Amino acid sequence: MGVIKENLEVIRERMAAAAIRASRNPDSVKLVAVSKRVPVERIQEAVDAGHFLFGENYLQEAQDKIKKLGPEVTWHFIGHLQSNKAKPASELFQVVETIDRLKLAKNLEKHLAINDNILSILIQVNIGRELQKTGVLPEDAEELLQSIAEFPHLKVKGLMAMPPFLEPEAVRAYFRQMRQMVDELVVKGLLGKDGQPELSMGMSGDYEVAIEEGSTLVRVGTALFGTRQ
Ligand SMILES: *Cc1c(COP(=O)(O)O)cnc(C)c1O
Predict the structure, then answer these.
(1) Which pLDDT score is estimated for 15?
(2) pTM of the prediction?
């Protein structure tokens, strides 16, 4: 059995165990396999092992892979998106997880409206208030969601976060704050109107803690594909 297939099985088992520890249905958490800087042949190995959901950070790199891997694969954009790249991003990806400012949302809406296409998005929150990181500040998320609610071609499915890079147990508090934000936004009618809201959080080092705290999408690269070049 190939190493990617083996890693997939281990990750899926750990994800399910974490969900069960938190009294959650294991089916309520999906794995976004982060394939940045992973060659297309290795992504194909994951597809052959039955995995069909991937995340990419760079548009140019993703373009080629998306073309080669065909229509049964679903792609999430998880990198920083420049406003002038809204058009290609909206055409290549099923979900853009990193919407953090109105200008970017406006540009996406403008391009989507031309062909009356709908795009699913997540709002990226800078939960650790880190200067070097993108994402809307927690206190500004509500206003951004209210503005985006006016755009008929953008469907906000939930929130995404990349907390400070710390030991898994130290990140737990940030994961918990994100879950609380989602719950508050649901109460305010800004999230969850078309089904359970998504919460994208947790990476190779801390996805089990993220699931215990309510993640519905874990973004795992290294633990699946090995160390990137
Ligand atoms: C690279 C990346 C990941 C995956 O990180 P690993 O530690 O390799 O699992 C997850 N989310 C984002 C936004 C990334 O850029």
Answers:
(1) 98
(2) 0.97
